[in-house]
Amino acid sequence: MKKQLDFSKINYETFEETYKHILRMKEEEIILTIEKLISYEEEKKGVDFETLILMFLEHKNDQIRLLVTKYMSKSSDLSTIRRIKKIIINEKKAEIRNQAINIFGIWISYYVEKNKTKEIKKSLDFGLDFINNSKSDESQNMMLQSISFINNNNKIDKLIMKKYSSKKNEDINSSIISMGNNGNTKWIPLLEDNLDHNYSVIRTNSCISLSYLGNEEHLDQIKDLLEDEELETQKAAVLGISNISGVYAKSLLEQLRFSSEPEIVQLSKIKLLEIKADEGLDSSDTSESEIEEEEDNLKNKNISDFDEYNAAEIEGWGSLNPDGTSFIAPDAVDDDIDDPIKSLADYEKPIDQPRIDD
Question: What pLDDT, on the 0 to 100 scale, is given for residue 280?
Fold first, then answer.
């Protein structure tokens, strides 16, 4: 009979012994055990299994490495960024590498918020190196989305425009997401142009990005997507309206209780409660328990806020069709114009393989 792990007795002194014990399990059991460790850590205040869980970071099983990499998104340990860079450079499986790139973006967003100039520069250099050396278009796009949180940077702006002018929908979609992450209002006209794109994922992400950069004057444009043929785009419109917020936004969300789509009714109700809670209105109308109750209703119905786009995680774009259109022809570029929103010239030349120092 196998010895059962008592999670309550696991501590720093027993991590090595516990790790060896788990390693003797079948791979399916290892995955289940790590998931239980993560759940236990979340449930029990003060419990920290991070050092133990990260011991599996280089396991031969892809699913184990993916699980542990995803777990790292919750880490605030400064050593995490070094591990993430190592995964980005060395990992062969695209799904795991892209998950690490996504976490890298979370850290960059944090650096920008805290104005950590040194860390921003190192992250930018690493990201640009990776883009110039990576052979994976998907990973290049993911990295652009991650470093695009750094605003007012000419190199990033040029990369965004280069992707935007591509004939591939994957590239256009990546540029749209990057515009929203970037926070510069100069991208608004391009986002508005793509609200009626023939590919729904691009319409969807244009809506979300516009809601990050826009204001109440853009609500009518976003509102039109509530009539979109794709439910995911309709849900993006609900999120977009709630992101902008304000009196008009609340009015639009209130009207959605009459929607013929149950998911839209439920999602709009949650977002309306969240807006009211943020505004500090009567707690009896906007209690945390009420919001949680509505979210539980969504989970019970297998409904997510938004299946195609997650701004915190920047992942899961799905399969894209090759029907993108070009914003501006490269041969129509004026090399003397510095602003990449007007010029696609002077792209960065490839540089050396990225370093993993943080």
Answer: 77
